[in-house]
Structures are given as C-alpha cells and as structure tokens.
Amino acid sequence: MCRTDQAPEPGEEQDLDATDAVFTSLLEDSAEELYEQAPCGYLSTLMDGTIAKINTTLLDWLGLDQSRVVGRMRFADLLTVGGKLYHETHFAPLLQMKGEVSGIAMDIKAAAGQRIPVLVTSKVKTSRDGEPLLIRTTVFDARDRRAYETELLRGRRAAEEAHRQAEADRQRLQEALAVLQQSLLPAELPAVPGLEAASYYHTASPDLLGGDFYDLFPLGAGRWAFFLGDVCGKGPQAAAVTSLTRYTLRAAALHDADPVTVLTTLNTVLHDRYTSGDARYCTAIFGVLEPADGHVGVHLASGGHPSALIQRADGTADYLPTPGGMLIGVLPQAQFTAVRARLLPGDTMLLYTDGLTEARTGPGRELYGEDALRAFTTARLPAGPRELISALSGLLAGFGDGLDDDTALLALGVPAALPTTATETLT
To answer: 259-273 and 235-255 are packed helices; what angle lies between their axes, rounded to 10 degrees?
Structure first.
C-alpha cells in the first residue's frame, strides 16, 4: 500500500485492481454455498435429536442423500454403537445442563460401514425467553489426527514393550550375576572344631558383583586354611580375576600350604595370565590355622593387604603387622611377608578389605582409617567373631554413600573358656 499523500506508481495501480477483483469474487459467495461446501460438517437438530438440516460436506462423508436424513434420522443414528452409548450417557446430558459441549471425539459411520473419527461441538440455540429451540452442531474430520494419535500410541506401546523387555533382561542378568557372585564366595563358613568364624560381604557395584573374596577350608590333619583379598576394579572383569584367584589359592594350598609359597604361586598365575596390556592384580592374606591345646596357632602371609587386627580377650586390640608384602600379579617375582601368632580363648582375629578403612566419613569426607577401626574394636567387649562382625556390618551401613568400595570381613576366634561353677570345683 502507498501513503495517502503519495500517488501510486503505474504498476501498483494494476496490482490493486487485481486484488480488488479477487476480494469481490470471494464476497459473491452466497451464505448457502458457504454452509453447504464448508470444510467441516454442519447440522441442526431438534431438541430430541431429529436432524432438521445438514450440509453437503457431512452428507458426502456419510455417503447419504439428504432425503434419507432430514426428518428421518437423529444425530445419534449417525454414530457408531460406542458413540451412541457415549452420546446418551454423557454428551446429551452435559449439553442439556451446560447448553454447549466442545471438541468431543466420536466416530460416525458411513454408508459403506467405514468408521470416520470426528470432533463434535454442539450448542443449544434458545429463544429470547431462554427456551431451547434447536441444537447446532459442527463435525470436524479427525482422520489425520486419529492416524497421528494411533502412530503415537503404537510408538509408546513399542517403547513400553522395549522397556519391559529391557527390565526382564536386566532381571535375568542380575540373577545370573548373583549366581556368579555366590560361586565366588562360600555359601556358608564350615564348622571348625575349637574355633568360631563369621563373615560379611558388601558390594558397591550396581550389578551386585564385586572383587573382594574370602574362604575357609580344611587342609587335613586338623589344619585349616583361610584367605581374604581384594581384586582391583569392580564388576564382571574383577569377578573373573576373583574366580581365578580363589581357585588358584585353594589348589595351591592343597599342594603346599606354606603361606608364602601359596601367594608366590598366585603371583605367577596372575602375572602370566594378565601380561597382554590388561594388567590385573590383587591384594591378599593367606594363612593356616593349627589348633593346639588351649590356643590356635596362626601362620599367615600378606601381599599388599591391610594387616589383620586381633581383639584380645582382655579388651585390647592391635594389628598383626605384615610390612613389605607386595601387590600380587604386578611383577614376575614378588616378596611376601609372613608372621605367626597365637589366638587364645576369647581372642578374635579380624581380616578386612580396604573398603572399610577407606570409607568416607563426616562433613569433611575423611577416610575412616585404621586407627578408627582399632578404636572401634577396642571400645567393644570381646564377645567373639559373630558379635564383632555384627557390629562392623552396622558400622558399614552407617557410612551411607561414604562406603563406595566392595568390603569383605572375615573374623576367626577361639571361644572364651566357660567359667567353672562351684559344683565343678568341688568335683
């Protein structure tokens, strides 16, 4: 358009004339033509639903002649069975109560039996006195929308099915990993004459598969072997090393139970197995228990593992130092530290992995540490391995998310001597 104070250019005048001609042709459409050829269906019904007027668009959708519809059918007759039920129970009562219902999804039935999804809006026309006269209804074709919604629903169902399948696969994997984890740990500790034993295992891996391990098994001639260790890493890869480590230790102990010899054999196996770039190693304590009169002899060796802690019957607690023991599997030749000790009645020896002492505590997220573990043990009355493991499992639970590593505990102790009664003394 040009400003009112400026004459149009010659070309602009021709464009304005053409535009006016288009508008004029549009305005010549009659109201009847606009009604009959509207892009949506129109119909008017009496208050009982009898169709009084219907446009050509809707008749074409239905495949019916006007003579078969007007005055002969009701609006509900155009609907499917489900649509009729909804119209009678919801649509019509709501329209009567509110005077208008908008955007209701229904299906109308064509002459060929085809179902056409539509969106229906109805409004009651009233007289000046407020008396209802008729119902005006618009019907919009919703086939494209229904197809889009169906596709969305199909996609949603496919996604839900994929999610269910993934959950089922995850559950099967969890069960398989749980079985594998059980194969890496003893189902229960054996009963050892003259000795009490207790254990606890916590895995920080989300797949419930950890790299810590322990065991207690007989060697014959009244001797028993034990070990506890920690494989680097977590998850299935660590479990594979754990499996190899556990069975190597058991096999080596049955051949020669000397603790240093057993750890040396394990070092050779791990180093030979993992020398192709995927280095794997572990820390471990291996020992032999030799019950004797009034005590149990302990002969153990350590390879890079935290020292064992002994809680004495008199309430004291201290570590059994094993300095100098090297990581197992790193070097072809490794040095291991051996030590001997005696467990007297009421004494308990605790073996643990560093998940316990390296847990984060307090606002400063400080390491729990060996000093805190010794203080915790000293503060408890000596009551045997089961009581000590129970207390430590509660301690681990209290760490919350500060416990971010696998943790294994194994406690071995000699039962306290029963007090002698007066009757027994006289006897």
So the answer is: 140
